[in-house]
Amino acid sequence: MRHESKLPNIETTIFAVMSGLANKYGALNLSQGYPNFKGDQKLYDLVNKAMNSGYNQYAHMYGCPELRLAIKNKIELLYNTSYDPETEITVTVGATQAIYTTISTFIHKDDEVIVFRPAYDSYIPSIEINGGIPISIQLKKPDFRVDWQEVKQKMSSKTKMIIINSPHNPSGTMLTHDDMLKLQELTKGTNIIILSDEVYEHLIFDDEKHHSACMFPDLKSRSFVVSSLGKTFHNTGWKIGYCCAPQDLMDEFRKLHQFTVFSVNHPTQKGIADYMEDPNSYLQLSEFFQKKRDLFLEHVKDSRFKFIPSKGTYFQLLDYSEITDENDFDFAKRLIVDHGVASIPTSVFNENKLDQKVLRFCFAKTDETLIKAGEILTKL
Ligand SMILES: Cc1ncc(COP(=O)(O)O)c(C=O)c1O
After folding, report:
1. CB-CB neighbours of 323 under 10 Å
2. Prior bond of 118 cis (ω within 30°)
3. Model confidence over 341-368: pLDDT tens digits?
4. Model's pTM, two decimal places?
5. Pocket lining: 172 vs ligand 1, CB cutoff 6 Å
6. Ligand 1 center to residue 163 CA distance, Å?
7. Which helix (H) or strand (E) element contains residue 341?
């Protein structure tokens, strides 16, 4: 049968490729962004309880009311602003669906979307399948800062959306208060929608602060703020996320959401809602992951890799330019096959696969895994 691909240039996601190789060669898997340890038993008990108490039929189309309320409360506590759970918060199948649906709702053919590279790999295909045109802005090592002058130059009357991601996967950098003010200034008076991917909002290290788009009134009025409860609570396989936006934007989003997803796994939503009644469920995460980051870095500090400690997310970039000239994909592959450690080559997230000689390592792993991986990397 003949068909014309709608995404002719899209390859299998690097996460599947690297995890597949890691399994094949029995390598320590620091590639894909998920924990290799259990989440909190209390949360599992609450999800079981929800299932046993009858939360097993379709949930409310916008998300289980208890969960939308818990999300509202969390945002009020952390960011000193509010969303109406009836009209402005929607629970989604992971952050990925929130991203896809937001883009599909607003991007028409030939609309331009500004994307900072390296970028999480679902953004570009979601834009392209809708006929949109990704306008990439390449961030550079070692600090991956945004040059707002460049953003201004790339903005045009065709710019329909700007996607930001802070804390940033894969670099572990964060947009500062000043960055957010610059974005607010640049978009003021336009019809540009901001898609703010904040899935790592609870993983912030040292003295850093997360500046959510919802904290800046003009940005809030044009933003979808997206987060992931699967990521936050160590259960990426549950695929539960959410997005918040002003009602006029959310009304449009929900038109599509109702016919693509309709509603999200019910007992899991209810269990998470009950779990979030205690804010410590998310407030303690930064400390927990900072210890993991520090442990990993302690064990690679004497290696030939160069790094700036990650400020947020559970990823650490390691620059291997003093070890080899190989391109990052070949080196990442060799690390798996010959040395038993899996990582992600970051060129796959870049424009034209720019090779910056940096690999991404996920430190959401048991201490034992991190120590072993660090020891191997130090011998290279
Ligand atoms: C930046 C970013 N956005 C979104 C996602 C997807 O989150 P979810 O698993 O909730 O779809 C990820 C997952 O790795 C991510 O790193």
Report:
1. 16
2. yes
3. 999 999 999 999 999 999 999 999 999 9
4. 0.97
5. no
6. 14
7. strand 341-342
